[in-house]
Write a structure and sequence with these properties.
By secondary structure, the protein is an all-alpha fold. The chain is 66% helix and 0% strand. It is flat.
Length: 558
C-alpha cells in the first residue's frame, strides 16, 4: 500500500522532494536550536533544560511546517503528548535508569515523529518500521541538510556567494579555528617545550577560554546541522513510502505446521512440569521447601532472574513461530492458537513464580534497584503476553509491534510513578523497624530522589541509626549546594525537593561538613553520594556537638 501525497493535485507536476519555500528560515531556525542546545546543556547536568528543549523543538517543527505550508499528519501529531510527558518526567526523577529511559523515550519518539511527520500511520508500523525510524532518522539528519544549506547560502549572499573569495576565506577560518585550537591543545599536552613556546607567544590570550569557546562553537554548529537535517527529513515530501511487510510479508512462512506443533508441545510439557513443582514447593508453603533441604530464603534466592529470562525468550519464540509457521486450514490455526494459549498461561504461572521468589528474597535481604526494576518488568511482561494472545486470536500479529512499544513506554512511566529510590529507602526503613539490618552504605548511594526519605528516616529512627545517617546527609547537602551553583538550566525538581527536605537539618549538618574539594566537572548521572566521601567518617562528642572528617567531593567528573 502506498501513501498518496495530498499536496499534489490531479494533473499538477510533482516538485522535487527537497524543494522548500524558505530555506534561509529553515537554516536560521536550526541555528537557533543549536544555540539553545549550547545554552541549556553545555557543561551542565540535565534539569529544567530538557523539557524546555523538547518544547522548543516541537514549536520549531510545527512553526516551520506552517511556514512551508506542509501540514503535519494527524496520525502522528499525538506523539507530541508523550514526548512532552517524558521530557517533563526527566525534570522530576533523577534515579539513573528512570532518567535514562525518560531521555531515550523522548529521543525515540522524536525519531518516530520525524519519520511520520507527513504520513502518520504510527500504529501501522511493524518491527522493521520502528527500527528504521530509530536508526535511519539520525542518519538522515546528517545527510539531508546540505542542499538546503547551499540554497540558504545563495539566498542570503546571492548567486555569487559560492564564488566569493572573501566568503570562502571566512568559511575556512570558521572551520579552521576549532580544529587548530583542539590540535594545539593536544600538542601542548604532548610536548612541554612546545607548550612553553606557545604559552609565551600567546600570553595575551586566555587559551583555556579560547578552547572552551571553540568547543561551544562546534556544539552550536554541529547541533544546528543535525536539527536542519531533522527538519528537512520531517518536512520533505515522503513520496511513495511503503511500510515494511504490510502488503505482504518480507519473509513468507517457511516452517511446517507439524514442526511448529512439536516445538509448542515440547515447551508446553516442560513448562507444565516446572509449574507442577512450583505448585508443590514454592506455592505450597515453607514446610515443603524445608523438607527438601532448603531454607525459604535460599530457595527464593535462586532463579528469579532466570525465570524472567525464560519468559522473555518464550515471548520471542512464540512470536517467531506465529510469524513463520504455515497454518493453511482453520483446524491448524485453532490447534496452533490453543497450544500457544497453553504456553502463555504456563508462562504466566512462571512469572507469578518469579514474582513470588522476588518477594521472598526482598523479605530476607531487603530492597534494591534491580529488584524494583524486576518487579515492574514482570508485571509489564504479563501485559505483553496478554496482548500477544489477543492479537494472535484476532489474526493481527502486526499490531503487536506498536503494542510492545506501548508496553516499553508503560514500563518507563511506571518507574517514574513508583519513584524507585524513594520506594527503596522507605521499604528498607520499614524492614529496619521490624528488626532487620539497614544497609546505609547502599541507601546513601542512591540519587537525590531518595533524600526526602532519608531525612524522614533520620527524624524517625533510633539515635544510633541517626548518628550513622547524618554524616552521609551532610555530604548530600554539600553536593546539593554545589549543584545550586551550576546555573538555572540545571534546576531539577528532585534537587529542589531534596534541599527542602534537608533544610530543617542544615545547622546540624553543618557540623559534619569540612571544606569540600570542588570538582572541575560533574557528570549529570552521578549521585551526590558518588560525588562525596562519606564512608570514612568519625564522630566525636564535645559539648554535645558532632563532627565528621573526610566529607568532600570526589575530584572525578564526566
Amino acid at each position: 500500500m502506498t501513501t498518496p501525497n495530498p499536496e499534489l493535485a490531479e494533473g499538477s507536476k510533482p516538485t522535487p522532494r527537497d524543494t522548500f519555500l524558505h530555506p534561509l528560515w529553515l537554516t536560521l531556525t536550526a541555528l537557533a536550536l543549536g544555540l539553545i542546545v549550547e545554552i541549556l546543556f553545555y557543561g551542565r547536568p540535565l534539569g529544567v533544560s530538557f523539557p524546555i528543549w523538547a518544547v522548543t523543538v516541537c514549536i520549531a517543527a510545527l512553526g516551520m511546517a506552517w511556514t512551508e505550508s506542509r501540514r503535519p499528519a494527524r496520525g502522528s501529531a499525538w506523539l507530541i503528548a508523550p514526548i512532552l510527558i517524558f521530557a517533563a518526567l526527566a525534570f522530576v526523577r533523577l534515579e539513573p535508569l528512570t532518567l535514562f529511559l525518560n531521555v531515550v523515550a523522548v529521543l525515540c519518539l522524536f525519531a518516530l515523529w520525524v519519520r511520520t511527520f507527513r504520513t502518520g500511520r504510527v500504529t501501522d508500523f511493524g518491527w522493521i518500521d520502528f527500527a528504521v525510524a530509530v536508526l535511519w532518522v539520525p542518519v538522515e539528519a546528517i545527510i539531508r541538510p546540505w542542499p538546503v544549506l547551499s540554497k540558504a547560502n545563495r539566498e542570503a549572499f546571492g548567486d555569487r556567494a559560492t564564488n566569493s573569495r572573501l566568503l570562502a576565506v571566512l568559511r575556512g577560518l570558521l572551520l579552521a579555528l576549532p580544529i587548530v585550537v583542539v590540535l594545539a591543545l593536544l600538542l601542548t599536552a604532548a610536548d612541554v617545550i612546545f607548550a612553553d613556546v606557545l604559552r609565551k607567544a600567546f600570553e595575551w590570550l586566555d587559551l583555556e577560554w579560547l578552547a572552551d569557546f571553540a568547543w561551544r562553537i562546534v556544539v552550536v554548529l554541529a547541533s544546528a546541522v543535525f536539527f536542519l537535517g531533522a527538519l528537512v527529513a520531517a518536512l520533505r515530501d515522503p513520496g511513495e513510502r511503503k511500510l515494511a511487510g504490510q502488503d505482504k510479508p518480507l519473509l513468507a512462512p517457511f516452517l511446517g505446521f507439524t514442526e511448529s506443533t512439536v516445538v509448542l508441545i515440547g515447551v508446553d510439557l516442560l513448562f507444565a512440569l516446572f509449574v507442577f513443582i512450583q505448585l508443590r514447593y514454592l506455592f505450597g508453603g515453607q514446610a515443603n521447601i524445608t523438607a527438601a533441604g532448603y531454607t525459604y530464603a535460599e530457595y527464593a534466592r535462586r532463579g528469579f532472574g532466570e525465570l524472567v529470562a525464560v519468559a522473555f525468550l518464550t515471548l520471542g519464540l512464540v512470536l517467531a513461530l506465529a510469524t513463520f509457521s504455515r497454518r493453511e486450514t482453520a483446524g491448524q490455526r485453532k490447534a496452533f492458537n490453543a497450544l500457544s494459549a497453553v504456553m502463555v498461561v504456563l508462562v504466566g504461572v512462571i512469572l507469578v513464580s518469579a514474582f513470588q521468589r522476588l518477594l521472598l528474597y526482598e523479605q530476607a535481604y531487603g530492597f534494591t534497584r534491580l529488584r524494583a526494576y524486576t518487579h515492574v518488568a514482570i508485571l509489564w511482561m504479563g501485559v505483553a503476553f496478554v496482548l500477544f494472545l489477543v492479537m494472535l486470536f484476532a489474526g493481527n500479529l502486526r499490531a503487536f509491534a506498536p503494542a510492545a512499544v506501548g508496553v516499553a513506554l508503560g514500563f518507563a512511566l511506571t518507574l517514574n510513578l513508583l519513584n524507585v529510590d524513594d520506594f527503596i529507602v522507605r521499604r528498607n526503613a520499614e524492614r529496619a523497624q521490624a528488626g532487620s539490618e539497614l544497609d546505609l552504605d547502599y541507601l546513601t548511594n542512591l540519587s537525590e530522589d531518595a533524600v526526602p526519605a532519608l531525612a524522614s528516616l533520620a527524624a524517625e529512627t533510633s539515635p544510633g541509626v541517626r548518628d550513622e545517617v547524618l554524616p552521609r546527609l551532610a555530604c548530600q547537602q554539600a553536593a546539593l549546594d554545589q549543584r545550586a551553583s551550576e546555573g538555572w538550566p540545571s534546576t531539577h525538581l528532585a534537587v529542589l525537593r531534596a534541599r527542602s527536605a534537608l533544610e530543617p537539618w542544615r545547622e546540624i549538618l553543618s557540623a559534619y561538613m569540612s571544606t569540600p574539594r570542588v570538582p572541575a566537572t560533574t557528570g549529570w548521572w552521578r549521585t551526590p553520594a558518588e560525588r562525596c566521601w562519606a564512608a570514612s567518617t568519625r564522630r566525636t562528642t564535645e559539648a554535645g556537638a558532632r563532627s565528621a572528617a573526610g566529607c568532600g567531593f570526589l575530584a572525578t567528573g564526566a
